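Subject: for your reference before the review

Hello V.,

The reviewers asked for a structural picture of the protein, and I figured it would be easier to keep everything in one thread rather than splitting it across files. Below is the amino acid sequence we used in the manuscript, unchanged from the supplementary table.
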Amino acid sequence: MADKKRERIAILGGGVGAMSAALELSSVPHWQERYEITLYQMGWRVGGKGASGRDQSCADRIYEHGLHLWMGFYENAFRQIRDAYAEWNARGYQPKPLWKDYTEAFGPQSVTIAMEQLEGDWQPWVLRFPDSKWKPGEDIPGLQPLDAWDLVLRTLAMMVLAFLGVRWQTGVRGWLLRTFGGFALWIAERLGPNPIVRWIVRLLETRVHGSWLLPFALAFGSLEHRSGEKARARHRETVLSALEQFAAWFETEASSNPDRADIAKRLTIMLDVGVTIVRGVLADDVITRGFDFLDDEDFLDWLKRHGSREPENPITRFFYDACFAYRKGRPGYHPETPCSERLGLNMGAGAALYGLLRLTGTYKGGIMNRMFAGMGDTIFSPFYVVLKNRGVKFKFFHRVTALKPTEDRTNIGAIEIDVQAEPKTEYDPLIVVKGCPSWPSEPLYDQLKNGDALRKHDLESYWDKLEPVEKLHLERGCDFDKVILGISLGALPYICKELIATNERWRLMVDRVATVKTQALQLWLNRTQAEMGWTEAPPILTGFVEPHDTWCPRDEIIPLESWPASANLKQIAYFCNVMPDCTAKYCPATCTPLDPAPDCPVARSLEDPHFPALEDDLVRRASLQFLNRDVHVLWPNCRDPKNPAEFDWSTLVRLDPNSPAFDQQYWRVNFEPPERYVQSIAGSTRYRLHPAESGFANLFLAGDWTYSPINIGCVEAACISGKVAAWAVCGSPNVYYGPMGAPEPITNIRFRDFKESGYRARTGA
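And here is what came back from the structure prediction:
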């Protein structure tokens, strides 16, 4: 019997949200005197949608759920991984870490590419972002919380660099501009910005040079923070005026140079998005009202409403693709359909706008950061090792099947769990590859009773009908006191049926917050990117064709796999995208209707044993079609010399000469309920549950499906959610980290709704 003086906390699931909550709870001084923490995990590894595994039968190669990158604005996530590596190294936990510091596990990525189709031909639009001087997770002395206007200005600074280069922020020109902007502000504060500042803007446009308007807008907008509230609104309108004047000047200048028409067109698109964002932020008073209330409208509709001439463009498409923002997994954009029901491109304007401003304006290190191994190796190994050594208990092979409310529906009264396998002794889940503690892609069967019999089962599948070793019935007050639910949204209709049936807020959440399947393809090649015909720097590329519109080379992980020299491995390529639901009715490669349309597999129950194989075959066939039909755009030298209509399969690494080369690559579809990506479709944010407000007194929520400042499916959102869940349990931590790492009270995390009675904190449905 557990010590009754300690609260028993059951954490269900092992994704980022669950691990984040466990890290925060076990960081409380003398926590073991107050709590007993047990984490229950289906299968043999933690990680949730970010789990990865090593194939010990094939060169220890890494299998991922898809492409995982850490954005430079992941302030909370980077702080947690920073602290985990520091503790792991300082205390000598075993197994030893490969990296002595978290910064050694990541590398900044400054080049991204948005693919653009011009008159039927695909062209790469290379976007280069300067590396930040700050490290991700590093504190900036004296930093104050940033509001929406600060985020706009930081994005505006990126536009200055894109159009005019760094010389406009440094040196004599930068000093003159700051001085000039300060003088203009001084005049405006005393005489009002109209007509004096309008005259300054006209002077810059006609007498000095129109290009000065853009950095003037940045300088004027930055300096105005010291003015009074009434003046601020007028100053911000001046910034917008200067931007609009710059846009008009730039378009005139660009039309006079036809030789650079393509570059000018791209810059014009960038400028159109930037000006529209400033216009929309001011018109909708986002600075005062926040971002949440915008989420009932799709982001493209919001841009169009505020005057964007081309809302769907490579920049916005890049962001939609990166967030898997296709309702039902379907491509296309149909503005005549109500945005909350629209198939195709669909993302709440508030979530998209805030995410875009954070991505481009508040990153540290690189705008994106690559991991030098798999997600499991780089992130979940240190999380697991630290938590295990702190005293958190891990129960692997424990599949949660149901949460049961008490009779009065005020608490969780019981948890039903199927025990999938029984270890011979305590299960030790990690292996060490090239000095890197890692997770295997299959259970370590030799540690399990009846391990050989388990080889024919998939212990991470809801479709697998393995008879449980034991059925556990955990009771409140006996086995647990509080519950942190860290299993993702897609599984809740299966494990929370009674909560959904009896609580309207839960029913609305599972009905309105959408999830989508994703698909991934990993290739190992014996030719470099250059030998395949790619001439740009190694990119993170998106906006390409379905079914794999996103590509990222992962050559940096080659040294951590165990390939023999004879394999001649030179390149690893990851591809991914959404996958349409009802795929039996739609071709997964083109998403066009099939005739005749077979039965929809999504409508099939978990009783259908053929569903996983059907999904796997759809991705396999779509990937083959993609390689034969589309990938030559990225790799011009990929075609078979003897059959130009087909991919050259000899470029793929093959260890088994008796098996086709493609069959020795790796592909997957994330159709399992907990694996489905949580989307941010228009109209859904208001239905997300707050991590501390589940409607059941002893139940707390952790994951990127809950409400947070970042209502996008990503590591940072899950991490913040885990922190809030821990705070709700024990009162710590009482802060989270906002843009650039400014600490803010966790109590600030509130849904802000303006639809009914003005600003208020939303605590109900």
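For the response letter, the relevant points are probably these. Residues 588-603, 754-765 have pLDDT under 50 and may be disordered. The domain at 7-93+372-513+680-748 is CATH 3.50.50.60 (FAD/NAD(P)-binding domain).

Happy to draft the paragraph if you're swamped.

O.
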